[in-house]
Structures are given as C-alpha cells and as structure tokens.
Design goal:
Blueprint lengths: L7 E6 L5 E7 L1 H4 L5 H15 L58 H17 L3 E4 L9 H10 L8 E5 L4 H7 L5 E5 L5 H5 L3 E5 H12 L2
Parallel strand pairs: 1-3, 3-6, 4-5, 4-6
Antiparallel strand pairs: 1-2
Helix pairs in contact: 4-5
Length: about 220
C-alpha cells in the first residue's frame, strides 16, 4: 500500500492549547510506502514476546496418588485398569500434557525499524498525531498533565501515547496514573506502541529526531 506522498501541515500547540507554529512534514520522509503485512508481522511479534508461556498441566507421573493397580486383571468383568492416575480417569494426569513454552522470536532489526516508521507515517497521514512545542514539568504532578491534555482537546479514556525526545522522569510520573496514557522516548517507539494508541502527542523535538533518523536509515 502506498504511503502519503503530499506534504501534511501539522499544527504545533503550546501547553495552553494555542497554535504557535506549523510543522510541515511529508509522510514519505518517514516511510515511502506503508506495508500492512510488515506492520502485522511486527505487531504479532511484539505481542508474542509479551506472552508469559508459563502454562502447564500434570502428566500421570506428576499427579499425587497411589500407583497400586486398582483391581485385579481378570475376573471382575471390567476392563483391565492400572493406576488411578491414568489420564482416562477423573483426577488423573493429562495424556498429552501442556509444557512451558517460550513464544518469543525476533524479526530483523531493520524490518522492525521500518515498521515503526511506517506506523508513524500512518498516524501523520490519518491526522492522529498532535504536536506540542515543549512538554516538561518542574515536578511530577498529574494535574499538570491532565491540564495539558484538556487544553489540547485529548479526551479522557482514549488511548494516548506521549512521545518525548528523551526519557523525562517528571513527564512519565505525571502521566502514569492517567488511564489510557503511556509515555515513551522517541528512540523507544515501536510499531505496537504506535498502532495500539488512538492518538500520539509528540514534542516538536521528538518529531525532529524521528525524521532525522528516518533520513539516515
């Protein structure tokens, strides 16, 4: 699928929600095309890597109980039977038991980097990216972050990814108690975090760094 090839003008807002600038960006600067299959593969990989894989059941050798033969082999009129821990009896072990499993795997690094840029380009093209001139706090205060989101008309309950140019502890601690809001530095964004968020609030400096890294890819 072809990505957006024309220039997009993103308004740049301040913390009070007033437009102070315009950010001109061509989605093709981030990714010339948007490959849905690659995005799907990247998202599935990240989700698989999140799976704990600690599920397991017990075999007949792991179930507590006597190994004594339940009754004699012949003369009872019943089918022959051994231990009551057999998998065909209630309370017995599983015949084909479930083992612990590691679901994680890895796609090529460049493919994952390209998928991230494609996801960002899609957000730009679909007008789901909000640019703010600066986002910093003197101290971590949730009410300050809530005020910024309210001024930017970012509704509560809607998933939001806040991207900063680098890790900012005050921004992170100010947003961590707000439902649906996550914070990540630009260098740690991935296809899953971008696509799973309804909108992205990104600082101008963080967007500059993403465009620059795309040019050098």
């Amino acid at each position: 699928m072809e990505g957006g090839s024309k220039m997009v003008s993103l308004p740049v807002y301040n913390r009070e929600g007033r437009q102070v600038d315009v950010y001109e960006i061509d989605p093709a600067e981030l990714a010339p095309t948007i490959n849905k299959q690659l995005l799907h593969d990247a998202v599935v990989m990240y989700q698989a890597n999140l799976r704990q894989g600690s599920h397991q059941t017990k075999s007949r050798g792991m179930v507590a109980g006597s190994t004594k033969k339940m009754y004699r082999q012949k003369g009872t009129g019943n089918a022959r039977a051994g231990s009551k821990r057999s998998g065909i009896r209630r309370g017995g072990g599983h015949i084909h038991r479930i083992h612990n499993r590691d679901y994680s795997y890895r796609l090529p690094r460049k493919a994952l980097q390209l998928a991230t840029r494609m996801a960002l380009a899609a957000k730009v093209r679909d007008e789901e990216m909000v640019v703010i001139d600066d986002l910093s706090f003197a101290a971590p205060k949730t009410k300050d972050m809530v005020s910024v989101l309210r001024h930017l008309d970012l509704p509560k309950g809607q998933s939001l990814l806040v991207a900063t140019v680098k890790y900012d502890e005050n921004v992170y601690r100010s947003a961590r108690n707000i439902a649906g809001v996550s914070v990540a530095p630009a260098g740690e964004l991935n296809a899953l975090s971008v696509l799973s968020s309804r909108r992205i609030l990104i600082t101008k400096a963080a967007l500059d760094s993403l465009v620059e890294s795309a040019k050098n890819a």
